[in-house]
Structure formats: structure tokens, C-alpha cells
């Protein structure tokens, strides 16, 4: 497809859409549909964009009605939107849930001299059915799983990176490897990526979500960007909540990548300080269950 360089991309992540009055998991969650409308309004005119990417946790509980809400929201964009799944997304409803002409779940999108590869960081948590197709394991546990590429996904990513004629590759994936947030850091998953990227020199960087802590750091000498979430966001340095938001990117003809975080301040999601319990959660000192128990005790 012909595009004018730089390629301009908008990233949304962790929209955690709800349906039918369902209650959000976790504490202090924002109204994600209201957050989407606020973000969409903040983006404003977007005809200059080449692509919108959504890096997973599209739904909060992975249900079909939640994807209907998501599809309705994303179909408001007048440009193509491509999505990859997160741990809160179940495979079948995710793959069948985006019935609108501009919504796709492609594994690779080529624009100008860039290839955008969409990785599935749930792949290693899936099981094979009798035909060898990967399906979700029974139960809800997968909704809270760490990233895992497993056996076939690294080979699939490698093939896409090696077979594209584009000069530069950027990878979009839900779970960020090498993350320093203790709550979600996973050495096994990070090792999967260090092994994979070691001999994929065309990969210029990674765009991810999952942590709900917007950030940028270096991974394997490449920039790794984490997008804000819609459900809740945190600034770990200043120990405050953050508004919902998004990232914009420019991909240059020379392989350069620049990205900016945009947060949409509003009275509905003030940047209030969070307490010691949430700080302990992010440091990996207590679990989500223990945090919920502390909150329940405080409410008594
Ligand atoms: Fe999330």
C-alpha cells in the first residue's frame, strides 16, 4: 500500500470494555466506555493516520457482548484499525467479534517500507484441540495469565520478520518483555523474546500494553513503548493514578521511531495519590487478592 512517510500510527491498549452493566475486575476502575469517548474526542480529526493499533485486553472478561461494544467504539475511526489479543481476551469471541469493514486482526500489516507484526502473547498459554488448532484452556484462569509465546509463536514471528520485503519491522504485542514493574515481570517470557530478537536485526522496536503504567525503556538495544490503559493507569514514580490515554507514533523512512504519550485529564479520573497497598502490589509484595482484602477491611 502506498503511504507518505513517516508512517503515522495511533496506539490504544487495555480498553477493557464492559457490557450489560457488568462490574469491572479490580478496584477503582474507570467507566471504560466513557474513557473511550473522552480519548476519541481528544484524538479529534484523525484522517492523517495510516493505522490505529489496539494491543489487547480489548474486553474485560473476554465475552462476545463486550466485543460488540468494542467494535462499535472502534468502528468510529475513519482509518483501518488492527487488533491483537491480551490476556483478558478469549480467542473465539476476539477473532469473531469485529464485524466492521475497518476492523481487522491481521498478523502483519505493511505500510511504506515498514512491516507491523502483531504477536500473540497468549499463544503459549493455549492448548491444541484434536485438529491441532490452539484454543483457550477451560476456565477463567487464562484471563490473568502472564505472557507466553510457547512453541509455534516465535517461529511465526520469525517467519513474518524474515519474509517481509519491508526494510523495517515494528512489533505490537500485549505483554511487554523485560518490564521492570515487579508485579508483571516474568523472566521466562522475557527470555523468549531475547532469544527471538537476537538475530532479527530488522526489528526496530516494540509497542505493548498490559502494565497500565505508561512508559518507555530499552529492550535488546531497541525502544519498547508501553501505552496507557483505559481502565486505570498509574505513575509509579509519583505514586499517583493517571487518566486514560493513548500513544502516537511516527515511523521514519530511515527506521527511526518516535512516540508520545497523551493523557486525557478529567474530573472523572483525577491524578490522586495512591496508598501504600497499591505501591506494595506493584512492587510484587502483595497479590491482587490481598489488596482486595485490605480494601474490603477499610470499607468496613
Ligand atoms: Fe489490561
Key structural traits:
alpha/beta, Purple Acid Phosphatase, chain A, domain 2, single chain, 24% helix, six-stranded mixed β-sheet, globular, binds fe (ii) ion, 16 strands, 7 helices, 300 residues
In short:
With 300 residues, the chain is an alpha/beta fold.
Number of helices: 7
Q: What structural category characterises the helix and strand content? A: alpha/beta
Helix content: 10-25%
Mean pLDDT reading: 94
Low-confidence stretches: none
CATH architecture: 4-Layer Sandwich
Number of domains: 1
The outline comes out as globular
**CATH superfamily caption:** Metallo-dependent phosphatases
Q: How many strands appear in the DSSP assignment?
A: 16
CATH level-1 class: Alpha Beta
Please report the distance between the alpha carbons of the first and last residues: 59 Å
Predict the CATH topology: Purple Acid Phosphatase, chain A, domain 2
Q: Give the neighbour order of strands across the main sheet.
A: 4-3-2-1-15-16
As a whole number of angstroms, the C-alpha radius of gyration is: 18 Å
Bound molecules: fe (ii) ion
Work out the strand percent: 15-25%
Sheet of most strands: 6 strands, mixed
Order of helices and strands: EHEHEHEEEEEHEHEEEEEEEHH
Describe the structure.
It is a single chain. By secondary structure, the chain is α/β, with parallel strands linked by helices. It has one domain (7-275): 4-Layer Sandwich (Purple Acid Phosphatase, chain A, domain 2), CATH 3.60.21.10. It has seven helices and 16 strands. The protein has helices at 32-43, 64-74, 91-96, 152-163, 187-197, 276-282, 288-299, and strands spanning 7-12, 51-55, 81-84, 103-104, 108-111, 114-118, 127-128, 134-135, 168-172, 203-208, 215-219, 222-226, 233-235, 240-242, 245-251, 257-263. Strands 4-3-2-1-15-16 form a six-stranded mixed β-sheet, with no helix packed on it. A six-stranded mixed β-sheet has the order 5-6-9-10-12-11, covered by helices on one side. A two-stranded antiparallel ribbon has the order 7-8. The N and C termini lie far apart (59 Å). The protein binds fe (ii) ion. Fe (ii) ion (FE2) is lined by residues 14, 16, 57, 86, 88, 210, 212, 229.
Amino acid at each position: 500500500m502506498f503511504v507518505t512517510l513517516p508512517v503515522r500510527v495511533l496506539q490504544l491498549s487495555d480498553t477493557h470494555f464492559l457490557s450489560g452493566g457488568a462490574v469491572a475486575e479490580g478496584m477503582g476502575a474507570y467507566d471504560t466506555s466513557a474513557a473511550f469517548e473522552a480519548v476519541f474526542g481528544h484524538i479529534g480529526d484523525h484522517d492523517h493516520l495510516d493505522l490505529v493499533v489496539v494491543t489487547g485486553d480489548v474486553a474485560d472478561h473476554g465475552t462476545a457482548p463486550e466485543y460488540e461494544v468494542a467494535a462499535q467504539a472502534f468502528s468510529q475511526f475513519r482509518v483501518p484499525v488492527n487488533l491483537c489479543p491480551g490476556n483478558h481476551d478469549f480467542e473465539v469471541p476476539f477473532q469473531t467479534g469485529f464485524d466492521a469493514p475497518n476492523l481487522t486482526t491481521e498478523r502483519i500489516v505493511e505500510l511504506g517500507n515498514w512491516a507491523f507484526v502483531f504477536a500473540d502473547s497468549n499463544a503459549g498459554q493455549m492448548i491444541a484441540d484434536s485438529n491441532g488448532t490452539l484454543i483457550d484452556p477451560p476456565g477463567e484462569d487464562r484471563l490473568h495469565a502472564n505472557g507466553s509465546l510457547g512453541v509455534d509463536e516465535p517461529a511465526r514471528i520469525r517467519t513474518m520478520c524474515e519474509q517481509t520485503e519491508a526494510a523495517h519491522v515494528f512489533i505490537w504485542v500485549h505483554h511487554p518483555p523485560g518490564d521492570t514493574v515487579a508485579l508483571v515481570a516474568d523472566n521466562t517470557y522475557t527470555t523468549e523474546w531475547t532469544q527471538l530478537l537476537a538475530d532479527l536485526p530488522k526489528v526496530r522496536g516494540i509497542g505493548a500494553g498490559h502494565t497500565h503504567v505508561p512508559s518507555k525503556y530499552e529492550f535488546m538495544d531497541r525502544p519498547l513503548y508501553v501505552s496507557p490503559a483505559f481502565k486505570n493507569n498509574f505513575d509509579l514514580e509519583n505514586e499517583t493514578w493517571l487518566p486514560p490515554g493513548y500513544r502516537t507514533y511516527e515511523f521514519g523512512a530511515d527506521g527511526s521511531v518516535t512516540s508520545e504519550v497523551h493523557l486525557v485529564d478529567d474530573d472523572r479520573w483525577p491524578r490522586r495519590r495512591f496508598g501504600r497497598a497499591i505501591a506494595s502490589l506493584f512492587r510484587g509484595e502483595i497479590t491482587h487478592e490481598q489488596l482486595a482484602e485490605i480494601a474490603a477491611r477499610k470499607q468496613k
